[in-house]
Design brief:
With 493 residues, the chain is α/β, with parallel strands linked by helices. Helices cover 39% and strands 14% of the residues. It has two domains: 13-48 and 372-489, Aspartate Aminotransferase, domain 1 (Alpha-Beta Complex), CATH 3.90.1150; 115-370, Aspartate Aminotransferase, domain 2 (3-Layer(aba) Sandwich), CATH 3.40.640. It is globular, with a radius of gyration of 22 Å. The protein starts with 12 loop residues before the first helix and ends with a strand.
Length: 493
């Protein structure tokens, strides 16, 4: 049986990037200030009073008032009381369409009964964790290996961030090289070495407060969607002891916010083989969302190591892991002594592979497979994106909407498409200023969506799930239509 993927038609990355280049140079279009004030006062202050009171009090004991970056939104975070299917409900009883999807892990819809029942069954029998081996460690690892052909072996971690750290150490042990190369603008966790050029290609350490610059001694980047730039970096690294690994998100940095050509991932793999570097694909978002075999199955690539997270845990905590070829995974063998001929990469995690995480992950993947959830979620992404583009045309707006299956993007300001050229240092302050200004306007748009009952990721990313249907998407588009009717060119200082 041929595998079905979430992507029915891959977007024209070059055309989209040109549109985004134009968008970031245009005047800013955002919700007009009278409308913004109205939703702040009439919706958030009056209808979300419980959330405001709760998160305001939380600021006294939680830095910023919330524990997760995605929870920040204008004018204050919402406190969620219930999640079910395609909807979220806040403490004030307001209902929302959930397109945040916990940051990407939810493909079945929030809190599916079948998975929850299996988790409860586990908790009743053995509890959430014992520190000893559990059958679901094996079941989950075997299921992932069956779905993803490049995964001979799998090791559970506590998060995608931890998995990236582990993969970095494996690569250095396997190749005897030190340098790590990543795509500029990509996010591979907040560990020290990967905090280089986050969000903005070429930004270097400017987004990495608290990290000493010397931590980036062995980290390099290349420009998104530019194989010539990657080969330049790899060739230069041969003079510095070689490259241990190249990390990419197959659809582009920041979950495809900066999309890449369809043949780009295969080009990266070719260059990795040419320059004796491990090919590492970050599937934290795309794994079990774009296909059972992930983005790598769709692009027909064969990474040496794969980073897993989010979806593989079905929204339950402790979702992270490394999968890969046996010859490299041997460096992660457990036990007190890996032997001098097979040194072990230093990894750990008391709660890694906790039974509650593994049972949720295993049954989530099984249910995704049984219900064909990936294809369903992708179709909803297609419908939503098609509708958004019609609304953009209707209102004569410069916005850019596109999708890679169930990973949808609605860019209203172009703030994610800036880059820094260090050969022109006089331009850097303005780039950082513009991204900050435009990010704030993106947050205002996100607030307007939320007042219409639509929760997005940062106002520019939208994840669909199999819990949606065509009638829901139609209703959502009507709500976007109402927001777009209040958009105009705004003047910002």
């Amino acid at each position: 049986m041929t595998e079905k993927f979430a992507i029915t038609k891959y977007p024209d990355a070059q055309a989209i990037n040109k549109q985004l280049d134009v968008l970031k140079e245009m005047p800013i279009y955002s919700v007009n200030r009278d409308y913004l004030k109205e939703i702040e006062e009439e919706y958030f202050d009056k209808k979300c009073a419980g959330s405001k009171e709760m998160t305001t009090a939380a600021k006294e004991i939680i830095p910023g008032g919330v524990q997760h970056n995605l929870a920040f939104n204008h004018p204050f975070p919402l406190a969620v009381a219930k999640a079910k299917g395609a909807h979220l409900y806040d403490v004030d009883g307001n209902e929302y369409y959930d397109f945040l999807q916990a940051g990407g892990p939810v493909v079945l819809g929030s809190n599916p009964d079948f998975v929850r029942d299996k988790v409860i069954e586990l908790l009743m029998d053995g509890g959430p964790s014992t520190g000893l081996f559990h059958e679901y460690e094996y079941k989950l690892a075997k299921k992932i290996s069956e779905c993803v052909p490049t995964v001979d072996m799998f090791r559970m971690m506590g998060s995608g961030n931890e998995a990236v750290m582990g993969a970095t150490r494996i690569a250095r042990l396997a190749t005897k090289h030190k340098r790590i190369v990543k795509m500029g603008g990509a996010y591979h966790g907040w560990n020290d070495q990967m905090a280089w050029s986050i969000r903005i290609p070429g930004s270097r350490w400017t987004q990495a407060s608290g990290v000493p610059k010397k931590m980036f001694k062995y980290t390099d980047e290349f420009f998104p969607n530019d194989l010539e730039d990657l080969e330049r970096v790899l060739k230069e690294n041969t003079k510095k002891g070689g490259t241990a690994a190249v990390f990419i998100e197959a659809i582009g940095p920041e979950s495809g916010t900066w999309p890449v050509d369809k043949n780009f991932p295969r080009g990266v793999e070719f260059l990795c083989r040419k320059y004796d570097a491990l090919f590492v694909v970050d599937e934290v978002v795309t794994g079990f969302r774009l296909g059972l075999s992930g983005a790598q199955g769709y692009f027909d690539i064969s990474p040496d190591l794969t980073i897993f997270g989010k979806v593989m845990g079905g929204g339950y905590p402790g979702a992270g892991g490394i999968g890969g070829k046996r010859e490299y995974m041997k460096y992660l063998s457990s036990g007190l002594d890996g032997g001098s001929k097979n040194p072990k990469a230093l990894v750990g995690g008391t709660m890694a592979a906790a039974p509650v995480s593994c049972v949720a992950g295993y049954h989530t993947i099984c249910e995704i497979e049984r219900t064909n959830a990936i294809e369903k979620a992708g179709k909803m992404g297609d419908l939503l994106t098609e509708g958004l583009n019609k609304l953009i045309d209707k209102h004569g707006l410069p916005f850019v909407a596109f999708n890679q299956g169930s990973v949808c993007h609605l860019d209203t300001t172009g703030c994610m498409h800036y880059s820094i050229d260090w050969s022109k240092p006089w331009q850097i302050p303005n780039v950082l200023k513009q991204t900050s200004i435009r990010k704030k306007e993106m947050e205002y748009m996100g607030a307007a969506y939320m007042a219409e009952g639509i929760v997005t990721l940062a106002g520019n990313r939208i994840y669909t799930s199999a819990a949606y249907d065509e009638e829901m998407i139609k209703d959502v588009l009507d709500r976007f239509d109402r927001v777009f009717s209040h958009v105009e060119q705004v003047k910002v200082k």
